[in-house]
Amino acid sequence: MTPILDVCNLGIKFGGLQALDDFNVQVANREIVGLIGPNGAGKTTVFNLLTNVYSPSRGTIHLTGKSTKGKSTHEVTQFGIARTFQNIRLFKNVSVLENVMTAFHNAMDYSMFSAILRLPSYRKQEKAARKLALELLDVFDLREMADTLAGSLPYGAQRKLEIARALATNPKVLLLDEPAAGMNPSETSELMMTIKDIRDKFDIAIILIEHDMNLVMGICERILVLNYGLIIAQGKPEEIKNNPIVIEAYLGQQRGE
Amino acid sequence: MLKVDDINVYYGSIHAIQSVSFEIKEGEIVTLIGANGAGKSTILRTISGLLRSKTGEINFLDKNISVVEPDKIVKMGIAHVPEGRRVFKQFTVEENLEMGAYIHKSKSDIKEDIGKIYRRFPRLKERRRQTAGTLSGGEQQMLAIGRALMSRPKLLMLDEPSMGLAPMLVQQIFDIIKELNQSGTTILLVEQNARMALTIADRGYVLETGRMKLAATARELLADDSVKKSYLGG
Amino acid sequence: AGNKTEAPAGTDAPDAATGEAIKVGLLAPLTGDVAVYGTAVKNAVELYVDKFNAEGGVNGTPIKLIILDEKGDPTEAVNAYNRLVNDDEVVAIIGDVTSTPTFAVAQASVADNMPMLTPTATHPDVTSYGKNMFRACFQDPDQSSTMAKLAYEDLGAKTAAVIYNSSDAYSVGLKDAFVETANELGLEIVATEAYGKDDVAFQAQLTNIGSANPDVLFIPDYYNPCYMIARQAKDMGITATLLGVDGTDGVLSIEGADKSVLDGIYFSNHYFVGDSAEIVQNFVNDFKDKYGEEPNALAALGYDAAMIMCAAIKSVADSGMKIDNSAECHQAIIDAISATDMTTVTGHLTFDENNNTIKELSIIKIVYKDGDATYELYGKIAAN
Amino acid sequence: MTILNQIINGIQIGSIYALVALGYTMVYGIVKLINFAHGEIIMVGSYFTWYTMSRLGAPAWAAVLGAVVFCAVLGMVIEKVAYKPLRNYARISLLITAIGVSFFLQNAVQLIFKATPRMFQNIFPGSLKLGGMVFSMSAVVTIVVSVILMIGLSLLVKNTKIGKAMRAVSEDKDTAQLMGINVDHTISFTFGLGSGLAAIAAVLYCSSFYQIEPTMGSMLGLKAFVAAVLGGIGSISGAVLGGFVIGIAESLTKGYISSALADAIVFGILIVVLIIKPSGILGRPENEKV
Amino acid sequence: MKQSILRNNKFRYLLNTLAVVLLYLLIIFLTSGGILNRYQSNMFIQIGYNIILAVSLNLSCGFLGQLPLGHAGFMSVGAYASALFSMAVDLPVYIEFPAALLIGGIAAGITGIIIGLPALRLRGDYLAIITLGFGEIIRVVILNLKFTGGAFGLRGIEKHSSISWVFLCTVITIFVIHTLLKSRHGRAVISIREDEIAAEASGISLTYYKTVTFAISAFFAGVAGGLYAHYLCILDPSNFGFMKSVEILVMVVLGGLGSIIGSVVSASVLTVIPELLRSFADYRMVIYSLLLIIVMIFKPSGLFGRYDFSLGPAIDSAFRRIRGLILRKGGAKNK
Ligand SMILES: Nc1ncnc2c1ncn2[C@@H]1O[C@H](COP(=O)(O)OP(=O)(O)OP(=O)(O)O)[C@@H](O)[C@H]1O
Ligand SMILES: Nc1ncnc2c1ncn2[C@@H]1O[C@H](COP(=O)(O)OP(=O)(O)OP(=O)(O)O)[C@@H](O)[C@H]1O
Ligand SMILES: [Mg+2]
Ligand SMILES: [Mg+2]
Fold first, then answer.
1. pLDDT digits (tens, 9 = 90+) for E19-31
2. CA distance, residue D263 to nearest chain A CA (Å)
3. Alpha-carbon gap, residue C77 to E101, rounded angstroms
4. Which positions in chain A touch D290 (Cβ < 8 Å)?
5. Which residues of chain C have pLDDT under 50?
6. Which residue has the higher pLDDT, E320 or B114?
7. Helix crossing, E163-181 with E184-194: angle to 10°?
């Protein structure tokens, strides 16, 4: 099977710091890949490179066989890579529903002219987008808050809204940067179910950065471990859990309770 | 040591904290647990003077600090590691640490303390000349904790110190908290990772939508069914 | 401090006779960038109107001045004009003071056939809008060409430079006319430099002028920039004879100025403060008494405008017409103004068929002697 | 030798811009506020000096000292009354208030002292010959003072405790408080300092250009602000550099291109520089990590 | 829950249209019925073009989140372009004037794009300074061109700006900007204000939307300039300086960034206030500036914050409140 996302030899330097080097990964459709590693290992940097927020010093990225080279961030999004941010970035002074509808931007194509004159194309597309957005909010149990401002949502809800917004761009690959940060264990396990659900429902591949091992080990089919910008291990959760290099660099000796 | 008595805190018309009271004795580790938005951070911000309570009193070392300016509160011995790191992004790592010791005068003490911090977090030493804004999330968290320690506090309040940290570091940070406590620092810990928090804490309080729901020893809370169900992940 | 702000003269306050009083509007910039000029005019107009009322007014009825500030802004000026006409129902208006607002107001006033008399707007087009628009001063080209001739014929200059304010219509108009006459005469213009409003540093321009080494330097602007330029020119060792315009008048009343730098400036003016004529001396003395400073050309023109206007209204009243806001009365006042033939502070004056004045122009020279500078009359020339 | 003369002219006016720009940059660096009232504080400082010297007959040094103190206090009062209540709101609200304050000062001074320009004595008479070039004494003093102040301020901000507090406050007020910094004092101090600088600029300005009037602050303020931005706002040495660059650019365009278009060309230079280097010549780019 | 008829879209349009027509009739009644004199009626014209200026600036300032300080520059481009056009041609008013306004708008819009393309790469205060710079450049250029009349100003412009024309343009401006904002394009614009990085990650092209928004904002400023030119009949470059830009900005911020109704109200109020203060003569500007400071201190987010008024829901909630009152009273009686 051809991979949906194919990353080859990706690398970037910040000043003298080789933040990422020789990063390779192939992700198949509907796969959930975990990306773990110590703080500062370069995980978020991978996401920034995949979305062309930074341009790589070297390496290539192909989505469904096409290179994303030279595209700007919004074009990459249109192309099919969506993401969430480690430090939540919502449109805070805008309602929850409008946050999601904003991301439907490219799913619609009516012109400014038809917006001003409220032509049928405008009304039809807006209606459809609204319906889809509400459905998306349903997936994340956010429908009741559709009219509240995103900035006044509790932290956990904000994280979920970010995922919903990313999904609204209709991605082929979804990048989640620490989606469970700041959630308590029960919320985290709930989120775990949701992530599985969206993979099934939307038929997409997911790459996930997370420090919560219950989550990572729970849903990832494959895990990559980064350290100092290099992949130091990859494999199935069980293999990673017991890999001495990973324990040494990242997991530490798990003290039992 | 710290006694919080019937505080009510508002954000505009939102009544975020409703008649909350609790106390911390010298030498304890006390943890506040609660869901997202329960009001944990709000309580810490109120104690350090960034927010004001409409009613009640907060006493620290038998002094009413509920109307004292935040900078005076720091001088009295309370340090606060705020939620979301809040490092000074344009400052270098080392300058951030120096800022933590703002209330101290002695240059040599500061130097020594910085050395200690570097021994605890070697990663910070590697990055000492880098501006803090370009650090990774976890590096920033280490820096925030290190910076708070620089004021040599009597009471250290930590707001979700494990957020975004690698498991090994989480371990490490909890170890450090324990160690700090053993060397005499009283700790008020807010954590999502309630299980970890309760394993090192003496006592815990459970906060639900701005109200205090439960107060008990850590051991009791760990065993409590409702706590298990809501906060410890089954 | 002798310079305390005067309370706005009694004219604005309602007094017992208000119901009866004849209302005349005054439009002037009293705040903002050009407030100095508006204030000079306002002071003089008030001075004359008070005097006129004290002497019995219009057969016993006082004239009440309604003074509105327009900040030097045409939009505000039109608002103020409309307010004078529609809310205050004035019978005639003195104003505006500077050119652009005067244009805006002039245009609006034509349809109303409102008698308008600008004391100071020297731009040639000001009176072109309609028969209702008069001016008490001479026009820019007159003084520019006079100055060019003076330079070429009397001072024997072969080369000239100009430094002007490119954002001010008054200054640009004077510059254009000067350059034109100079070209006709064969006076070579060796440098033309511009500056903007609010500029205080002229060294860069003066450096260019200095290296062109002209015989005369023409500075068509009001007295403040003129003084600053003169001073900086001296600092830079420029020896050209400086030529000013009517706006230069008043330069000697600048408090604390180093007057030695002004020595030898020639400028064209509407009148000469030292003129021994009684009307001039009375005006100068009254003005000094009331405001503690010597009146400049703007003030003299304001005084004249008030004088012309009051006389015109009086003559209409004398003819038996009721002074009110009617179209007939407006026309009568307009006719009366155009029939003016009187001696004012700025000389004997009549109006031509285009509502411009026919009068003499004075050329003043500043002479610095023994630590003080004075204006001296160099000569009088018929304008136009 | 006109080119040299034009450069000297540029340095002279540029040193005034530099000095004023320092005040902008100080306040901007800490409060992130374009303090539109800064030009007006210079105006007030000028009037203070003029009044005490020519009306009250005070000696120059006393007038200057008085002006510095007066302006510093005025700056702090403005901050307390007009800016502090808005600290936690959108910066643009603060900007509008600053504009309000500047209108107020301008019109209040006009009401008190009338619109008539006042003449100012040259406190530093004479000139200095250097090689074949002639510098007026006040220009020399201005240049020296702005360079000294630049060095002093850089040291203050980089190395002293209050300087570090200022930088910390500028980044994150809440967290600065958690370090034990008194935010109110720090901001007050910054305004006092910035306004004191304005007074010094005022004196030197008056000494060079002889004349003061109620509206003098606006254009000067604008140009100096442009200088601060060009140099990289928030950067102290940038402000001084920007001041000189603007001054020289202005003088050279007036001298060699067109004095009528000088303002347009200077702004054009600013735009080109900012497009090439978006955070100004010496400004630090904002590193926002995603 | 049953939707109130007042929240029904079609009905709302009808209601809004009706309200606009009524307002127009009221103004016409007041101005040509002799109830207001010319001085007072002319204020409506000034209010009108100031509303257009404020609302259009609010688009790039309140909604796009930039800080442009050169709005008066766009206004002047529009003013001169439209005035030069109408002076050059001689067509019936109902063709010439709209064409002139359109040309003014387009000229300003093109200027907006020329300025926007390089300038919008910058952020925050740097952008502010660049737009300020461009505003000054436009002013100085106009001052030094021959065909604009230079410092003498452009004179002899026909007086076309009647209350009806101004009213029509104001309504169209508000309508267009409002409807645009309530579409995917508007959401894109607002998302840029909220978080540029997240907006890009949601597939929105920053360059495209910033430039287009800037151009639309400039376009309407140009139209306002055209109205201004054909109202005052004289154009003077010094009236389009930095202070004019600041004046418009004050209207926007005072009304509330991101509130169209706020801009409408504050543009109206700020046009009228200086005139009302005339009786305080000398103290006028001092009082004006103090008012400005005081309003900002007590209402930092502007009079209306981000609130936007919509007639349907407003009446609806008013009805509900009244009904609530009646029911409560009725209930009390029954007891
Ligand atoms: N814009 C930048 N400039 C300079 N250095 C950077 C930049 N962005 C990231 N870095 C550095 O690159 C390294 C990798 O950062 P990255 O954010 O990818 O880490 P991470 O793996 O996501 O860590 P964490 O789990 O703590 O979020 C870090 O050391 C960081 O300091
Ligand atoms: N600046 C603010 N303005 C308005 N409401 C706020 C603000 N900060 C917090 N709140 C609200 O106050 C309540 C308590 O928030 P707080 O941040 O104290 O919760 P928390 O328990 O720390 O949650 P978390 O786990 O997400 O950090 C929440 O409902 C939150 O939405
Ligand atoms: Mg990361
Ligand atoms: Mg919290």
1. 888 998 998 888 8
2. 37
3. 24
4. 44, 48, 53, 85
5. 1-18
6. B114
7. 70
pLDDT attached to residue D276: 87
Cα D31 to Cα C287, D20, D163, D168, D187, distances in angstroms:
50, 17, 13, 11, 7
Specify the 3-state DSSP secondary structure of E122.
coil
- Topology at the third CATH level for domain B2-231: Rossmann fold (3.40.50)
* Beta carbons of B189 and B199 less than 8 angstroms apart: no
A151 interfacial to chain B (CB closer than 8 Å): no
Distance CA D187, CA B156 (A): 27
For residue B39, give the ligand 2 atom closest to its CA.
18
Taking the C-alpha atoms of residue A48 and residue A45, their distance in angstroms, rounded to an integer, is 5
Whole-structure pTM value: 0.89
Residue D285 lies in a domain: no
Domain that holds residue A182: 29-89+154-256
For chain A, counts of helices (H) and of strands (E): 10, 10
- Mean pLDDT to the nearest integer, D52-79: 92
Residue D137: give the domain boundaries.
3-276
Residue A160 is part of a domain; what is its CATH number?
3.40.50.300
Residues of D in contact with B147 (CB under 8 A): 179
Q: Which residues surround ligand 4, an ion (CB under 5 A)?
A: B 41, 83
Domain count of the fold of chain E: 1
Is residue A143 included in any domain, yes or no?
Answer: no
Per-residue pLDDT tens digits for D194-224: 999 999 989 888 888 878 888 888 888 888 8
The answer as to whether A178 is a domain residue is yes
Q: Identify the nearest ligand to the CA of A17 by its number.
A: 1
Q: Which domain holds residue E134?
A: 37-241
Domain limits of chain B? 2-231
Residues in chain D: 290
- How many domains, chain A? 1
What pLDDT was estimated at residue C14?
39
Q: Are E126 and D274 in contact (CB under 8 A)?
A: yes
In degrees and rounded to multiples of 5, residue A256 shows phi and psi of -75, 165
pLDDT-based confidence at residue D33 (cuts at 50, 70, 90): confident
Predicted pLDDT at A146: 92
**Residue A19 counted as domain residue:** no
Nearest CA in chain C to D107: C31
Distance separating alpha carbons of residues E247 and E238, to the nearest angstrom: 14
**E114 found inside a domain:** yes
- Residue B80: the pLDDT is 92
| Buried/exposed code over D69-78 (b: 16+ C-beta within 10 A; e: otherwise) | ebbbebbbeb
Arithmetic mean of pLDDT, D253-260? 86
Q: Is residue D286 included in any domain, yes or no? A: no
3-state SS assignment for residue C130? coil
Whether the bond between B224 and the residue before it is cis, its omega within 30 degrees of 0, is no
pLDDT score, position C219: 96
State percent of chain D over pLDDT 90. Answer: 32
Q: Which of D283-287, E69-73, E277-281 has the lowest mean pLDDT?
A: D283-287
Centre of ligand 1 from the C-alpha of residue D141, in Å: 48
Residue type, E269: V
Q: Is the pLDDT of residue E279 over 80?
A: no
In degrees and rounded to multiples of 5, residue B191 shows phi and psi of -145, 145
- Cβ neighbours, 10 Å, residue A203: 10
Instruction: Give domain status of residue A55, yes or no.
Output: yes
